[in-house]
Design a protein that fits this description.
Oligomer: single chain
Radius of gyration: 41 Å
Number of domains: 3
Distance between the termini: 129 Å
Largest sheet: 7 strands, mixed
CATH class of the largest domain: Mainly Alpha
Number of strands: 21
CATH architecture of the largest domain: Up-down Bundle
Shape: rod-shaped
Strand content: 15-25%
Amino acid sequence: MTLPRILFLLTALFFIGAVHADPRVDINSPSVNLTDFRIGYFIDDSRELTYAQAREQQYTETTSTTTLGTNALVTWFKVTLDNSTQQNLSLDLQLPHAYHVKSVQLYAERSGQLVKSEELDLEHVAESNLMYRGVAIYPLDLPAGETTTVYVRSFAYSHQWFALNIFDEERSRKALVGVANDIALLVGMMLALVFYNFLLYFATSKKENIFYSFYLISGVVWIALSYGLVASLFDAYGPSIFMLNLSLITMPIFLLLFMMAIFETKHVYPTEHRFLQALLLPLCGMFVWGLFDITAALKPASSAAAIMMLVTLSVSISLWRKGNPLAKFFLIGHGFFVFFNVLAVLFYKGLVTPSYLSSHGTGIGIMLEAIMLAFIISYRIKILEDLRESQDDLKKQAATDPLTRLYNRRHFFAEAGYLMKAAAARHQPMAILAIDIDNFKQVNDAHGHAVGDQVLTTLAHALKTQSRGNDLLARFGGEEFVMLLPEADTEKALACAERVRHAVATQSIEASPGEYLKLTVSIGVASVNLASDSIESALNRADDALYEAKNNGRDRVCLSGDNTTS
């Protein structure tokens, strides 16, 4: 026999063995905990086969947890159970994914005779006692030493996602206790993010927060529905609940809207914006289609998801290359989403071996991306805060004197006008001080500008020390300073001026090693007539009083309209 002929025969035997599968499970102990074993399946394209017809078909071998994609809506599963123990066994056959099918029929035969049958219609689940928290439980008695063959007909809405577990009664109860606990934790985390971002939206009115919140809500609904949490918590099944799978379409819609908002594509990246818009339109069309025929609308969902992931990845890469600071973080989060969703798509199409990661890929991907999107929102807030602080610093620099860090003349006049209006509205007094360093030109000429700068900063410090929190201080230029005193009558203004004069007089500056300068200032005081004064006219009267103080010997305070000095 030639080698090619041998290879042909081996290949033929392999396929014959796969087609004529008759998986058997040997139960050799009263303690039964079977979650991974071999079963057979047959896809009923006609959707009309009876039990008698199905038992005559040829079954293909697969695992007890399997996915067969969207083209296997009605599928028969078969497993043969050999009770090799010396006692009768009472077992539970559990279908943990029964919550997402239209109906399930179960048949048990022994020695070619049907011994038990049960039907579970998810549209009339109240009429059956087989369903508990989304899990179909089929009690089955296995006589000692006998063989029982079980057939299960599963009619799915969109994807044939099947699992069969076999337990003794004790382990069956334990398996039901932990149903959907991991999904409840995932959903709880995402709901916390929803609540937080709603608060952010009400605080900032940023569209990205509301789009992100609705993206999370869509993800929560789909995860809770697809992984049995809705069934577990609310005992809710059937076509009306299956309509919630529309969230699988709304989720990418809100993700695209989030991208447009957070990256400001409409104004900054018009090319990328057009790509996102082009993707958004068919998704909205699918959503409308789903309102009338959700099963049909979900059939192209996997292909649409692949296109969406390709476009969004391409757009985010483009934004990253163009220097957008948020794009790299979006790429990381979306990379997780794409990886786990590709795994999930392969699982739903029956192209990969079922596992926790593949069966829960969409949920894991949504959660990881949700966390990264939350980080992006926080990081963008930080960028905006840094920008705001930078702008505030620039405004402050424009409003202050760089040497003394007091306000400059321009800011003084702008702020003084506001303070005068506020004082007039409250009928409060106001006064102004004009302050000038005595003999400042001689200090500069004799000791240089460095010592002169030291004199200016010393006076600025004295003014800050002697002022109140609501006083407005400014350096007008050279050695001239101004203080505007809200809520201060003439008496309080004179007292403040005297404190400043005394504080300066007690200061001394080291002009050179061993040589100290004593400082003095002359101060003019004027009350502000809020009914008739402008800030300029009040300041002019304070200046007149200042010149009077200078002429009367310096180092003194003089009140406008009064020749008394102190």
